[in-house]
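Worked problem 6 (solution included).
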Amino acid sequence: MSLTKLTYYMEEFPYLVFYPGGKKNKSIRSINNKVRKESIHRIHTMVEKAVQHITQEDVTALQAFLGLQGASVLPLLISKEGDLYLGGLVKPELFLFETFSNEHGVPIHQEYVFEAKINTLSNDKLEPLIQSLLNQYIFCAKLAKYSRKNWITYLEIRFESHSLVTFAQSKKKEVQAVEKMNKSNLLSQLKYPEDIAFWRHRVEIVMRPFRSIPKDWLWSSESTCNHEKDLIVHSEKRVMELHCDICDYQVFFNHEENALQLNEEFDLEKVRKRVHTIERQFNEIAEKNDSLLDKLTRIQSLQQKLKPFQKQWESIGELLNQINKMPKQTETIPFSPYVEIFTQLNKITIPNHEDESYLLWFSQMELPNVHAIKAIDDWEQLLNQDIGRLLTEYEKQLEEYLEQNKISSQEEFTKVNKHPLYWGEVEQVLQLIHDYAGLYPAHVITQVLIGKTSNKIRTEKLHHTPQFGVLHEWLEKDAMKALKMLEKEGWLQKLSKGFGLTDKSIPFVEKAV
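Solution. The predicted structure is:
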């Protein structure tokens, strides 16, 4: 950092350098004589004394940091009036990693200013302040050898090598398995609820070190989270703080001790033992649940049994999807117990249990609910029948139902004030809403539908739309009732201006939303 054009030197105070303090204070013309004789003279005397105890290496680094010449080592800020700016003393963080325009002087950040009236401080109070401040400048001079970006990268790497973080990474599967099983619906199927309650109580203790670090930091593929971070220097404590606003988390690096510290530190040996114990306790509980283990194995067997029929099931699923999207249905949809069986079993994932612990095995299971565990006996009986034949029969029933319930454009969909609304007209209404969703209020849409021209409609060229006049025999109030009826039945949704389509209606328009 160079402030050469802003610096102001005085021969009588060789250890001091002066900067214009305050926004748009571009230069120092003169310094108040009274201030020079009293406050600045006292400060200079103390700096001269303190410099005798500073190594030449530190002096050189400090001067390089501030871009100083001669013997000067401590900056003072001078106001436009030639007085000390709020006492003149500023923390080195004001200059660290910063560049200043020669046109604007040194802008002031209040957190870096000592608002002290030098002439009111005794030597016993001023001298340690000057000594501490020089040490802070020397500390920041060492940091200034590298950029802010380099320090952030370095602290991220140090975080990654912290003992708790490296342990968490080495036990990632186990730690995440504990968290998952603590919320799993499988716990409700385990016997010995007292053991489960005790295990969950211990989880809260065991997981506290890992929960004290945000997931984006602890489990990130990078060193830390991928958010932009701020580097905050606390020169008085010789500490750097790496802070993420989004995660609301920070770590601290003690430069003198060369140690990175987390927000909260834990006894790593206890953490190791507790993670091992919590896994062992869960495994012991699982081993005592022969009935549940047997049912999980049986579910796996049923999944294997259904594999040869998956393509047939996909065809049935497509038919059911078409039926569910039909605008209206006049009969009950054909039923088959295989719909529930296939639907439920296709959502379940139970990996093979090999050499892993029960904790890891259970945590890899995907079980949306425990219904399959309770229904396994009934399902096994149903699947002992001729599955292929029964699925073929059910598929034919669905095809017949779909054919019988197809709706034509000429078929009456509903009535509005005894006025028939045909399905073809409904499709036209949906297409119009799709094309102009949220652009026009409801009364403009109804005018287009009944074919009513207005200056607005002509200006917007809405009378050229294919849907203009599709309800030409309707009154405007009845067309509005039709729109509200479609909204009530879930075909349209009210927007801040006009209407929009719903998930129910989207498949019936020409374009995909």
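Discussion: Residues 8-144 form one domain.
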